[in-house]
């Protein structure tokens, strides 16, 4: 079965002095990916709800907000109010994950759960049917521009099999080192949503790069 292809440029790699124009240049994107880092859960500090609110005002593209923070349950309402459409939390940071997922649902947002490279898939086995999306980190989180971890492909394949066993439509998003050169392989493994930071924002034509990445995936469909 052919899966959809969703490209989500990550503004972590954008020029923040020119952020509005950077986002407008991402024509053809399916989502705008926003990495929120607190300097505790990951060794970097990025942005908060005020930036999400500003981005929401300038684009109709859904906002995919990835919370790489400790105690995510304390900030869900703020990011939901700011305009997040998808709220993804890390299983490693959420002590009571089922409660956090329910909080996201109650806020009217789409819940996702992310796993770091060393976190096994069995950690989400019980919560999987409650999710709209699982985000597989294919690099260790914290910084953009890292190389894709090859072992992630097998993890994606196994996750796709787990999802199919639930009988539900759950997206697999992949974040870290996805480029036009490897996106087809990641798509074939079972992913359907692709975060692309430097792969998009280091090019001269963001829209063309997004289109190229989509075509690479579609070329694998039978």
UniProtKB/TrEMBL annotation:
Class of the enzyme per the UniProt entry, highest EC level: isomerase
Family stated for the protein in its record: Belongs to the ribulose-phosphate 3-epimerase family.
Pfam family, one: Ribul_P_3_epim
Domain of life: Bacteria
Pathway terms, separated by semicolons: Carbohydrate degradation
Positions annotated to bind substrate: 10, 66, 142-145, 175-177, 197-198
One GO MF term attached to the UniProt entry: metal ion binding
Alphabetically ordered keywords of this record: Carbohydrate metabolism, Cobalt, Isomerase, Manganese, Metal-binding, Zinc
Keyword Cell wall biogenesis/degradation applies: no
Active-site residues annotated for this sequence: 35, 175
The record's free-text note on cofactor binding: Binds 1 divalent metal cation per subunit.
Amino-acid positions noted as binding a divalent metal cation in the UniProt annotation, renumbered to this chain: 33, 35, 66, 175
Purpose: Catalyzes the reversible epimerization of D-ribulose 5-phosphate to D-xylulose 5-phosphate.
Entries under CDD domains matching the protein: RPE
Cofactors required: Co(2+); Mn(2+); Fe(2+); a divalent metal cation
GO BP, sorted A to Z: pentose catabolic process; pentose-phosphate shunt
Keyword Lipid biosynthesis included in the entry's annotation: no
Protein name (Swiss-Prot/TrEMBL): Ribulose-phosphate 3-epimerase
A GO CC term assigned to this protein in UniProt: cytoplasm
Gene3D superfamilies for the chain: Aldolase class I
E.C. number: 5.1.3.1
InterPro entries, alphabetized: Aldolase_TIM, Ribul_P_3_epim, Ribul_P_3_epim-like, RibuloseP-bd_barrel
Reactions mediated catalytically: D-ribulose 5-phosphate = D-xylulose 5-phosphate
């Amino acid at each position: 079965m052919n899966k959809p292809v969703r490209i989500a440029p990550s503004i972590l790699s954008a020029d923040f002095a020119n952020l509005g124009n950077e986002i407008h240049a991402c024509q053809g994107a399916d989502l705008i990916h926003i990495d929120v880092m607190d300097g505790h859960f990951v060794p970097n500090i990025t942005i908060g709800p005020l930036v999400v609110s500003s981005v929401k005002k300038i684009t109709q593209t859904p906002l995919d907000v990835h919370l790489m923070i400790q105690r995510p349950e304390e900030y869900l309402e703020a990011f939901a109010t700011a305009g997040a459409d998808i709220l993804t939390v890390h299983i490693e940071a959420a002590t009571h994950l089922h409660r956090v997922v329910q909080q996201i649902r109650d806020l009217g947002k789409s819940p996702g759960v992310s796993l770091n490279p060393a976190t096994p898939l069995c950690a989400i086995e019980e919560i999987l049917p409650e999710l709209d999306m699982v985000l597989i980190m294919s690099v260790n989180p914290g910084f953009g521009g890292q190389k894709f971890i090859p072992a992630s492909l097998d993890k994606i394949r196994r996750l796709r099999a787990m999802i199919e066993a639930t009988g539900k439509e759950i997206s697999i998003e992949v974040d870290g080192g996805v480029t036009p050169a490897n996106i087809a392989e990641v798509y074939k493994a079972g992913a359907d949503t692709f975060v692309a930071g430097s792969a998009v924002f280091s090019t001269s034509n963001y829209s063309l790069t997004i289109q190229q990445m989509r075509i690479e995936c579609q070329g694998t469909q039978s």
